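ARCHIVE CARD
Drawer: 12
Card no.: 0347
Subject: one protein chain, sequence and derived structure
Cross-reference: see card 0346
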Amino acid sequence: MNKKKTTRASLLAAGSMGIAVLAVGPTAAPALSTPALSTAAAPAAAGGGYLAPYFTAADLTGDREVTVDDLDLLVEAMGTTSTDASWPDVAPADLDGDLVITVSDLAALSQRVLHDDGDFALVEASAVEMQKAMNAGVVTSVQLTQAYLDRIAAYDRTVVDTSPTGRALASIIATSDVALEAAAASDAARAVNGGPSSMLDGIPVLLKDNYDTVDMPTTAGCGCWEDNQTEDDAAMVEGLRADGAIILGKASLDEFAFGFTSQFSAGSEPGDTVYVASPYATDKTAGGSSGGTGAAIAANLGAIGFGTDTGGSIRVPSSYNQLVGVRPTVGLASRDGIVPLALSQDTGGPMTRSVSDAAIALDAVVGSDPADPVTADADDRAPESYTSYLDPEALAGVRIGYLASMLPNDLAVQRLWAQAVEDLEAQGATVEEISIDGIDPVLGEGSGSTNEFKHDLDDYIEAHLGESVAARSLRAIIDTGHIVPSRASTYDRREQVTAEEYDAWMESHTAVLEGGRALVTGALDDNDLDAIVYPSGRPYGTHSTNMRLSPNTGLPAVTVPMGQAVATDLSVTGAGVNLEFLGREYAEGDLLGMTYAYEQATAHRTTPELYGALAGDVLEGVGSDESATPGDGTVTISAPAKVKAGQEFTVTVEQDAADLYAYDLSIGFDPGAVTYVVDSAGTDDTGATYESTGEGEVAVTHTKLGTSPATSGETTLATLTFVATASGPTGLVVEELETVDSEGTATTVVEAADAEVDVRKVPTSLDVDLSDDKVSKGSKVSLVATVGAAGSIAPTGKVKVLVDGDVVRRAEVVDGVAETRFKARSLGRNKVIVRFLPADPFKKSKGKAVLRTVR
């Protein structure tokens, strides 16, 4: 049966799956409108990249996302087959490939709506999960932001590790005073627009404190710059805010991004040093220089983080903290407004708990910027969305190479590497050893920080440094004494670099970078490779050549958790080690696809045990029912055993559900005996919408949305109202029920006892009214018989008029009234009896009157 279009609200009911009820009656009635629901509508097209392809591939409306509008179209197309002319319009949603649109396809499409009304757990939540929960009204951006602020307050400067060597994380330098205000604005806009403006809308983000922000000072980790309030955001921060991200705070770092141990002086007394601890082992460093971002995101003090990388500063802390880190192609994202270390190699990028988060975050920050000339080609080279590469099968057919010299002599790394190769091959990749003649000088080239820092810092100071900052040169910074003491000699050496030394360095260094890029790209081409892979480092340790391959070629790299050390590795048990993928220029999408497939197949990331959920980090969703016990699938249809004709009655279909995500239900009835009450239908407390489509059948289509939890236990599938129109026994029957569980398995259920209803005849009353109770013999007498009955149906039938036992007239009852005339014949007192001879479903009745006849 082809079903008519349901309304959007019919599938967005607060507290339940939406129900579209399609009734069959003599005429079609329009869908009734529904009031505004507390549940947010499906999101509008996202400006910053809508997660693809899973959430977009089956789009039917052309807006490049799956929303409730697509479900409406599919409900209308139920039963369409590949031989129908309209098949091309709905073929993308034939997700089970059986060439017919069924409830299985509706369920599969529903799962691609960004919506989840189940319980929400903040710890380890991804941006996708946050958007689903916000769209379902389970959580708001304000709640997310406040929860992260609460976690920062509870965990960041508190020593929760009670071991003798336990330390506080010290991962956050500052939090934003306007973050909650921005989150409230995001929530308000979501309510007005029916969804987020992008996948980052309302998501709290932490920035390494070398990104300029208009609402917080940029210290670069140095006590000497605690008052560096810039007038502008960094270019990448502008991109994040434009996509609706909530800038939550600034993360700790190695002072001025020097080093891999995240030591800083900001917020401390002159002469003191603050160390960022790993949330997995607080006596160990979180890595650097983006160690604060790494520790904070790993400990769930923010949703998404950003770091910078000159010679490993994103990838080292990502490895130490079991995160995904992206070092983009130099030139993909603007560095304008980021405190530089060495612009020949500097780049900013995301640090996240998942590859999907990294892709979402990267979408917001890439693009050309005249203020950073190396980004001139970025607009042409960046895809519409990096999320379009997120395919769990992305490793199938991929060719990957590795260099034996990049495999550290470490028990944990060797074991994890062997497993990684096995895992890559299990996903369909070919992994082979390669050699690259001439690679050693590339891997041996040092960072540009020694010769470039002073020059590049001067440019930043001139263009961006806040007016109130006194230390306006590297020499002035050193002279303040408010720096990490152990870095003084490092700064002195760099302060002494002359313009001539800088120029000479840039000439030779640029040649090495360009040569290295050409050399490695050639090796990829010659060996027909998609990527080169290698361990990012060792447990709480680096392997310098591995960190240098990407910055010394300018090629992009993505690092992803590879596993953890165990006791037999003679290392720190539980210490993370990452696997790094390097590819061609601007091949970030391919790398994200490969790392996504690897991540999905292995799921190596673990959560730091010391930084678990706080009170309020888990919110109960309206769609959750933890007390429900999965049932045996029994279906029952129930109705009153006895009703009177003309009476409204309710029919309920229930299932003792085991795992119910969607269903298609048909209920049959005798239209000669009962009528489905279309006129009184509307939106009940589940947000259902009713329509009439034919005769003798009611069809109910019901689906959950997104990853909302399936229903289990006693579940009402339909509650319908009928009016009895004919007396006698009648039945209502479940003609067909097809259910789909949360795994997509469809089951047809036909065993359900009929609901038998005995419709009783309606008692009637009859009033007789004579035009005159005393007349002359032979004159005409007018008689009006009024038949009354309970209920909404007017009695029908005939009346028979008897005078002193003789039938004198018969008349039809019209609208409960019969009128007739008869001649008075017998003198004296005449007994007038009127008998009601009913049509079904009314009972007989009679009325009396007395007529006196005179001469």
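Annotation on reverse: The mean pLDDT is 90. Residues 169 and 565 are 21 Å apart (CA to CA).
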